Amino acid sequence: MTTTVSLDKIDLKILQALQHNGRLSNVELSERVALSPSPCLRRLKQLESTGIIRGYAALVHPSTVALGLQVFIRVSVDKSTHLRDGFADSVRDWPQVLRCFALTGETDYMLHAFFADMESFSQFILDTLLAHPGVVDARSSFVLQEVKNSTVLPLDHLQTE
């Protein structure tokens, strides 16, 4: 979403509350933002319909589902449009890759991926990533320790007081 929507103080409170706990009931949410339940629900539905709130999800801890190897992979691709577009399309189908960013600078893409172990990582790199016709080079960095992992966007810059 690239369009900025005007949000008032109550909208920001709703967004902040839900970013910290997306499972709040409407009654709990309305209490936190000091609004009665009906208007609170109307505002919430508007935030959802405009795409400001793009969805809800359960955040699963990777190591509890045997995905203990977290990797950032920097990928350089062939500069021809059809191969570059083909790479972006392929990435969307790779379940190991949770996030992919097109970048400026020396690297074209940054992939954030999870694997069960080094064997599954190696198989992905050799059989999938490097086998893709658009990939020229790939360099990996393994996460040793996660220092911060948040899904909460900063919204303070939107407050008008």
From TrEMBL:
UniProt KW keywords: DNA-binding, Transcription, Transcription regulation
GO cellular component, as recorded: cytosol
Q: Which residues form the signal peptide?
A: none
Q: Name one GO molecular function term.
A: sequence-specific DNA binding
Could you give a single Gene Ontology term from the biological process aspect? response to amino acid
Cited InterPro entries: ArsR-like_HTH, AsnC-type_HTH_dom, Dimeric_a/b-barrel, Tscrpt_reg_AsnC-like, Tscrpt_reg_AsnC/Lrp_C, Tscrpt_reg_HTH_AsnC-type_CS, WH-like_DNA-bd_sf, WH_DNA-bd_sf
HTH asnC-type domain sequence ranges: 7-70
Highest taxon, organism lineage: Bacteria
What is the protein's name according to its record? HTH asnC-type domain-containing protein
Q: Which organism is it from?
A: Eikenella corrodens CC92I
